[in-house]
């Protein structure tokens, strides 16, 4: 039979330890490593090291791959004082992670050294209830929900694609949404554009979209832009957002969105449809292709009916 | 119905990206065809000659008038030097 001391001593022989000063120095150098917080929810909620990924030690083996798929990624594991992190780092080695170290002294020493910590805004009782089904998904959890609530997403278009995207993003609690569209709701839109109701016919789509999403989830901010995206306004608008969801319906806007996003280094969720076919991708500037890599120029006018 | 399928996939990708979980659709294109109910994945690569994000970009600022360019596609990218 082993005591916990023996188990910890054994882990210490296998797992290198690093000090908070060393980790801080690496963070300042922007070295490539992941900080993994393995404490319980309530400990994490009280404060954590900036940019840390949180997976409780209890869920570690089940969900760490969803956060850190690369087995050769350098991982600095921390807990409250540096013991659970040793054991967690050892479990990760057994899972094939090759470069795991444990933070000696853990969060306690980090905070005592006066280094920056962050605390997510506590959720309200209503938020804890509204998003409770997200918390059951360990990959989302309260940490993921906090990211959604802090996210700033711009939806280009409140039509066929923007409708379902807007409904789900709003319901899921994406905290700050911009919606840009210059159209007015028409009766012929309603067969597919589920953001808009019959009584909204004749009103601006962004207004109708805001009303619908707000009624689904009053917890989020929505900024409507009742205008057309152009080269003159795109930079000012994009600068307010972290992610662009492009559900536009014309090539001029699609190339504008793509060009501005690459020049401003913003990711785009791309979607387009034609008759019975649709396509989806994620364009992350300089990490993957952009829309122009796929389609250097739009088709000649008249080739694709809108 | 088709925009619903595609729009919800877009929302899914957005949420995955924001939370930082799963495999994002970077470098992958999903093609969905409703009549045959088929779903295909295509690998898509960066184009090193892309006028915008390639190694020697010629599009280094926005075009003045995207509507006019869409009407006249060959004006979309200035020729490489």
Give structural notes:
The complex is a heterodimer of chains A (about 300) and B (about 80). By secondary structure, chain A is α/β, with parallel strands linked by helices. Chain A folds into 2 domains: about 5-110, Rhodanese-like domain (Oxidized Rhodanese, domain 1, 3-Layer(aba) Sandwich), CATH 3.40.250; about 150-295, NAD(P)-binding Rossmann-like Domain (Rossmann fold), CATH 3.40.50. Chain A has 14 helices and 11 strands. Chain A has helices spanning about 5-15, 20-30, 40-45, 60-65, 85-95, 105-110, 125-130, 130-135, 140-150, 160-170, 205-215, 235-240, 250-265, 290-295, and strands at about 15-20, 35, 55, 75-80, 100-105, 150-155, 175-180, 220-225, 245, 270-275, 275-285. In chain A, strand 2, helix 3 and strand 3 (about 55) form a beta-alpha-beta unit. In chain A, helix 1 packs across helix 5 (about 85-95) and helix 10 packs parallel to helix 11 (about 205-215). The longest helix of chain A has 14 residues, at about 250-265. The mean pLDDT of chain A is about 95. Chain B has about 80 residues and is of the alpha+beta class. Chain B has 2 helices and 2 strands; from the N terminus they run H-E-E-H. A two-stranded antiparallel ribbon of chain B has the order 1-2. At the A-B interface, helix 9, helix 10, helix 13, strand 10 and strand 11 of A face helix 1, strand 1 and helix 2 of B. Strand 11 of chain A pairs antiparallel with strand 1 (about 30-35) of chain B, so a sheet runs across the interface.
């Amino acid at each position: 039979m082993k005591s916990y001391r023996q188990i910890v001593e054994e882990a210490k022989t296998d797992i290198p330890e690093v000090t908070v000063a060393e980790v801080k120095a690496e963070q300042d150098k922007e070295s490539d490593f992941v900080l993994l917080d393995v404490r319980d929810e309530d400990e994490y909620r009280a404060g954590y090291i900036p940019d840390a990924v949180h997976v409780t030690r209890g869920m570690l083996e089940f969900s760490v791959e969803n956060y850190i798929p690369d087995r050769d990624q350098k991982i600095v594991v921390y807990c409250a004082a540096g013991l659970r992190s040793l054991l967690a780092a050892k479990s990760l080695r057994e899972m094939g992670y090759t470069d795991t170290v444990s933070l000696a002294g853990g969060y306690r020493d980090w905070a005592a050294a006066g280094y920056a910590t962050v605390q997510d805004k506590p959720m309200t009782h209503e938020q804890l209830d509204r998003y409770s089904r997200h918390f059951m998904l360990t990959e989302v959890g309260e940490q993921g929900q906090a990211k959604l609530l802090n996210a700033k997403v711009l939806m280009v278009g409140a039509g066929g694609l923007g409708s379902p995207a807007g409904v789900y993003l709003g319901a899921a609690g994406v905290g700050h949404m911009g919606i840009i569209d210059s159209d007015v709701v028409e009766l012929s839109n309603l067969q597919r554009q589920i953001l808009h109701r019959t009584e909204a016919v004749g009103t601006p789509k962004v207004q109708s979209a805001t009303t619908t999403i707000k009624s689904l989830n009053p917890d989020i901010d929505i900024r409507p832009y009742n205008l057309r995206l152009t080269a003159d306004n795109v930079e000012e608008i994009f600068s307010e957002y972290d992610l662009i969801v492009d559900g536009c319906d014309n090539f001029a806007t699609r190339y504008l969105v793509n060009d501005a996003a690459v020049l401003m280094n913003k990711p785009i969720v791309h979607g387009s449809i034609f008759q019975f076919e649709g396509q989806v991708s994620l364009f992350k500037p300089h990490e993957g292709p952009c829309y122009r890599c796929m389609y250097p120029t739009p088709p000649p006018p008249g080739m694709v009916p809108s | 119905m088709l925009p619903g399928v595609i729009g919800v996939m877009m929302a899914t990708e957005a949420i995955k990206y924001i939370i930082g979980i799963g495999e994002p659709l970077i470098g992958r294109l999903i093609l969905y065809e409703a009549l045959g109910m088929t779903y295909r994945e295509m690998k898509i690569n960066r184009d090193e000659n892309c006028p915008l994000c390639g190694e020697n970009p010629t599009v280094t600022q926005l075009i003045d008038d995207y509507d006019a360019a869409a009407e006249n596609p060959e004006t979309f990218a200035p020729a490489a030097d």
